[in-house]
């Protein structure tokens, strides 16, 4: 019965069950994406009457020459390239530690998961207080260590770093839970056999745990990278609706928001969204390709 071939009736029945989700996905995900792709090519476009004067590449040419877009792109790439590996590495270290204390694992999972389920605006306001120059928790701690206070929220040299810290903190809990799920699926007998063969802790990790954890790692890396590419709420809350001092924490999503809702340049906003979509897709393909190569290499070595 399990190997029965699908029939037209069973296929239609499955589609009927999936219809509500498919309709919602088409209406609120696929169609907006197609509409944004089309809008990015509109020239002399009236958003309120939906009148398109012409089609062309003018919006992408505008982005090419816009220094503010270049700044947003540079900030976003820095944020992803720093926050993503730090988040994944810390999550893996914490998950490995929790995996050795099963009695307290549930308790710590709950603590680490709290930032993920807490409203971003609320966490942004809390971090705004932590980063305050006068009386902020971080600067008070630095003062006790003999370090001069840092104006995290008003100094353009450290504003992006403050945003990166918030992004790492917020994404940590969910990744810890995912890594723990992956570690729990690995049978302990592999590590015990490697230990009997004389493998130390590092050798057991690199030759047993890491190869078996690669599929989950791919999911976590891609998910973390996509999340960091779409950072907006954290910056909006941390800097009270601004993109940091002198746009020092301006991201691509914040640039899109400004162009659409503030400057009313709807087609430019759509074009920047297309660029963001292409960057996320490219990074996803590169990450997936790298881990496939890594898995083949580890498989060949074993």
UniProtKB/TrEMBL annotation:
Classification via InterPro entries: ABC_transporter_permease (IPR051393), MetI-like (IPR000515), MetI-like_sf (IPR035906)
Topological type in the membrane: Multi-pass membrane protein
Residues annotated as domain ABC transmembrane type-1: 73-287
Keyword flag Cell membrane: yes
Cross-referenced CDD domains: TM_PBP2
Entry keywords, A to Z: Cell membrane, Membrane, Transmembrane, Transmembrane helix, Transport
Keyword Isomerase attributed: no
Bilayer-spanning residue ranges: 12-34, 77-98, 110-130, 160-183, 236-257, 269-291
Subcellular location: Cell membrane
Recorded superkingdom: Bacteria
UniProt family annotation: Belongs to the binding-protein-dependent transport system permease family.
The protein's name: Carbohydrate ABC transporter permease
């Amino acid at each position: 019965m399990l190997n029965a071939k699908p029939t037209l009736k069973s296929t239609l029945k499955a589609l009927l069950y999936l219809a509500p989700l498919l309709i919602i996905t088409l209406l609120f995900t696929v169609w907006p994406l197609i509409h944004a792709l089309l809008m990015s090519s509109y020239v002399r476009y009236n958003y309120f009457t939906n009148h398109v004067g012409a089609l062309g590449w003018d919006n992408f040419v505008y982005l090419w020459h816009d220094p503010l877009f270049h700044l947003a792109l540079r900030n976003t790439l820095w944020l992803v390239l720093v926050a993503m590996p730090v988040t994944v590495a810390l999550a893996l270290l914490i998950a490995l530690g929790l995996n050795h204390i099963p009695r307290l694992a549930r308790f710590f999972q709950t603590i680490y998961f709290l930032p993920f389920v807490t409203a971003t605006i609320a966490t942004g306001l809390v971090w705004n207080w932590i980063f305050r120059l006068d009386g902020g928790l971080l600067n008070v701690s630095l003062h006790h260590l003999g370090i001069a206070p840092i104006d995290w929220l008003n100094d353009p040299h450290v504003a992006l770093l403050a945003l990166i810290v918030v992004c790492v903190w917020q994404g940590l809990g969910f990744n810890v839970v995912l890594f723990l799920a992956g570690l729990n699926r690995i049978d302990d007998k592999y590590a015990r056999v490697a230990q009997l063969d004389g493998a130390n802790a590092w050798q057991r990790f690199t030759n047993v745990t890491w190869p078996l954890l690669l599929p989950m790692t791919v999911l976590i890396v891609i998910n973390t990278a996509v999340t960091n590419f779409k950072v907006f709420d954290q910056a909006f809350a941390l800097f009270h609706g601004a993109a940091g001092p002198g746009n020092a924490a301006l991201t691509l999503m914040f640039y899109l928001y400004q162009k659409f809702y503030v400057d009313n340049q709807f087609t430019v906003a759509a074009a920047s969204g297309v660029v963001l979509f292409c960057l996320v897709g490219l990074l996803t393909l590169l990450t997936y390709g790298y881990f496939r190569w890594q898995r083949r290499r580890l498989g060949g070595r074993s």
